[in-house]
Design a protein that fits this description.
Strands 5-2-1-6-7-8-11-12 form an 8-stranded mixed sheet. It has a 4-stranded mixed sheet with strand order 4-3-10-9. It starts with 11 loop residues before the first strand and ends with a helix. By secondary structure, the protein is α/β, with parallel strands linked by helices. The protein has helices at about 20-30, 40-50, 95-105, 125-130, 145-150, 200-205, 220-240, 245-250, 250-270, 280-295, 300-305, 315-325, 330-345; strands spanning about 10-15, 35-40, 55, 60-65, 70, 85-90, 135-140, 160-165, 165-170, 175-180, 185-190, 210-215. The chain has 2 domains: about 10-215, Rossmann fold; about 220-345, N-(1-d-carboxylethyl)-l-norvaline Dehydrogenase, domain 2, CATH 1.10.1040.
């Protein structure tokens, strides 16, 4: 009798940005015993190196010991390594800087071509990535427009997007709680590229505790999340209430209805699509399933304001306003909540 031995080859994944989402996704990969490195702020790196990564919440408790992964403050610290996947989990306002930072480190990508790193990427550096598509970049970020910032430097075959509609809360620098979960993490390409290359990533995230899948129509998912976020995120921050409270009150419910109708009109005018043919179709799912599944969650915008951080309002309502201006669609309710968030945010400075 002949015995076959199966050799486990760990997937090499770089998490660029170890905030709540980055830690949450990293916990899944570590639970699946993948080879994970995280790039984070100094206090997060210190906590991770000392105490490991801890996940709690609705998908159970998991702790990764500090010796099972690497944590760095900068890409400059990573030596002699390249990755199968780079997951960008920064705030949306850091997308351009993240793309440029990664571009300056071609050694992190599989089959690297010799590029001399400079402070500012040149046209030749950008061109050198055209034939280097082994490493996939997956954008796990809020808002609309992040892919465009990466497409300025990387070929479309290399850039994928993820729709994350799971709620994460970080109580300590190295600890993340999964608070709510509305649907699986979806991974796909806005440019119709091969999904087989990111299927293994979705599989190991699922194995690590949070359902994930590849989808052929990620644009529809991202716009569904824009409809969801633009209604709940700013209003939840302005009124300092969880999502469920917004849906239960007729005044805030009326505001959300108007916001969603306006966002849907802008999306349609700009030539984008989601899973519903009308705002009414989305509103039914919004109130019947999405809000109830995330009723206890407080918006990331509220969390950012409470912590004195910059919010992502420009990638959410701000992105809708930009498209509305381009296509001459009036959206007064979105303008109002945008201005209120900007005012509140300005008081934190």
């Amino acid at each position: 009798m002949h015995c076959c031995s199966i050799i486990f080859v760990a997937m090499k994944v770089l998490i660029y940005g170890a905030g709540a989402v980055g830690l949450g996704v990293a916990s899944c990969l570590l639970k699946s015993q993948e080879d994970v490195c995280l790039v984070a702020r100094s206090d997060t790196v210190a906590a991770l190196r000392k105490s490991g990564l801890v996940r709690t919440g609705i998908f159970g408790r998991f702790r990764a010991r500090p010796e099972t992964f690497c944590a760095y403050e900068s890409l400059n610290e990573i030596e002699n390594r390249n990755f199968d996947f780079i997951l960008v989990c920064t705030k949306s306002f850091d997308s351009a800087a993240a793309a440029e930072d990664l571009l300056r480190h071609p050694e992190l990508f599989s089959d690297p071509a010799p590029i001399l790193a400079r402070k500012e990427p040149s046209n030749s550096e950008t061109a050198a990535f055209q034939n280097r598509c082994g490493t996939k970049i997956v954008l796990c970020q809020n808002g609309w427009g992040n892919a465009e910032k990466f497409m300025a430097h990387f070929p479309k075959e290399q850039v994928y997007s993820a729709r994350v509609i799971t709620g994460f809360s970080r109580h300590r620098p190295n600890e993340v709680e999964v608070t709510v979960h509305a649907d699986a993490i979806h991974i796909g390409s806005l440019f119709g590229c091969d999904l087989a290359t990111v299927k293994p990533l979705a599989n190991v995230i699922t194995e690590g505790g949070i359902p994930s899948a590849t989808v052929p129509d990620i644009e529809k998912d991202l716009w569904a999340k824009m409809l969801y976020n633009c209604a709940l995120n700013p209003l939840g921050a302005i009124l300092d209430v969880p999502y469920g409270a917004l849906a239960q009150n007729r005044w805030s419910r009326a505001l959300m209805n108007h916001i969603i109708e306006e966002v849907f009109a802008v999306m349609t005018a700009a030539g984008f699509q989601t899973h519903w043919q009308s705002a009414d179709g989305f509103l039914k799912v919004f109130y019947d399933r999405l809000v109830p599944d995330t009723a206890g969650h407080k918006s990331s915008t509220l969390q950012d304001i409470a912590a004195g951080r910059k919010t992502e309002i420009d990638a959410l309502t701000g992105a809708v306003i930009k498209l509305a201006d381009q296509h001459h669609v009036p959206i007064p309710h979105n303008h109002t909540v945008y201005n209120l968030i900007c005012f509140i945010e300005s008081q934190n400075v």
